[in-house]
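Re: that chain you flagged

S.,

Sorry for the slow reply, it's been a week of failed gels. I finally had a moment to sit down with the sequence you sent. For the record, here it is as I used it:
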Amino acid sequence: MKKFLAVTFAVLMAFQLFACKANPVDADLPIWVPSVPIHTTAPTQPSTQATASTDAGTVSTVPPTAATKPTTAPTVPPTTLPPSTAPGTTAPQPTEPEPTVPAPPQPQFTTTAFPNSLKKDGPLTTKGLPSVGSPKLLVIPVNLDNSKKTSAALNDIKTAFTGTEQSTGWQSVESYYSTSSYGKLNLDCVVLDEWFTPSRTASEYESYYDEENDADGSILILREALAYYESKLDFNDYDYDKDGYIDSVWLVYNCDVDYESDDSLYWAFVSWEYEETTYDGLKAYNYAFAGTDFMHEDTDMYPTEDILVDSHTYVHETAHLMGVDDYYDYDSKHGPQGGTYSADMMDSTLGDHGVITKLLLGWVSPTVVTGTGTGNYSLSSFTTTGDFLLVSDHEITSIYDEYFLIEFYTNDGLNANDSPILDDKYEVAEGIRIMHVDARICYNFKGEIDWNEGDSYSTGFLYDNSDTGKLFQNNLRADYSTKMEEYLYPESLYRDGSVVFGEDIWQKHRYHSGSALNFTLEVLDIQNDLCQFEITLH
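Prediction finished late last night. Pasting the structure tokens below so you have them in one place:
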């Protein structure tokens, strides 16, 4: 009886031990969530399934005999019981697999190189300056004031276009574009060693205007200069893309810049030649026109005390030669408020080029975010690495579409001297900047790229930042301002501890198509030159 009770007790204890070990993990325990960076595949959950075990002791399976048989008697083989019925042995019990907790959905992050650029399928760069490679850019010093026809001024022009950071105190046209393009555009600016003196006076060119072709006196200077240098230069050296056009020409005049008039010839602008005259078999098209006064400009837009030769204006106009639009408001009475808030080289001639400009010029490729769910991601500084995200509510197959561009803005690199963030030259201003961009092209009824004529600005895109019904690009600020006249401030950026985009702010913002905003973004941390954030697509 005691032996039976002992066996029974052992069986019960083994069963309880098995039941305890097979009990599933508490479902309320937190599920492990990965830290930065998150990739497209969710990590596997650690296994919680228990493994059953039995007592390791040995139990005899043969009962003792009652009496000893004679040695001559036949031997009876011992009886072995099956494991399931052997005394003192616990039979293995079937177990159900632990239910698998499905991983939460996560957005996909895919780096995509789009085949487009302003030079390919674009609306503005027909016959213009290539934005990739090493094209030669002809720079002609134009003498319209003999009192300023000096070798010092000529050397300053060379420094402004070809100098180093040390010789300019900031950047030259060449060094700026090499840096801004991450080495993809290495302009060879050829500044001629002599002043070109045209046949008429500055006032005569000022009074000339061709109403039929909307052309001013600058085009007369261009034609005279090209005709003069045709026998001295081989213009085929200036057709990098071999499209039959001189890529672009810079005319830098030395008479006074007219800072007061809104329609003076002596300002800074880009225009084009409409006649079919050829020079060494090539036609002219894009040209830029600006004065030497801009090299020593007194402005409060950026600090000038350390600048020896200022190239800001020439950098801005050179982007127009490649087909880039202005992003500032030509007339505050037309069009919606918002925009870039002066924080762009193509707005107030400040800092680095923005994300959409570099995308259109073929210098950067976005990480496109698709799918649904929540994930963490880290971005490094856009101005130093070209790293950024593109989010839309539909598949993007071309840069000529509507989407949101997300960058980690920092006031270093080309933003260091004249940061677009107001009053922060000597302090750190960094955080996420979110731009709503609609870069769809304007087409006419024939399906051809059309010149979208606005009240004060014309563009080949469906929208601009001056007077179209919607904005070409708009900075969705963390401090929620829609006034075009204002500047950006450090609190305009999304930073650790600031508001959540799409949840606390801009939650009612919509695509131009009318569909609702489809993502939220919260900055989690900024350190070690990285901005970590959580993005949710729905």
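What I noticed first: Confidence is low (pLDDT under 50) at residues 1-86.

Talk soon,
D.
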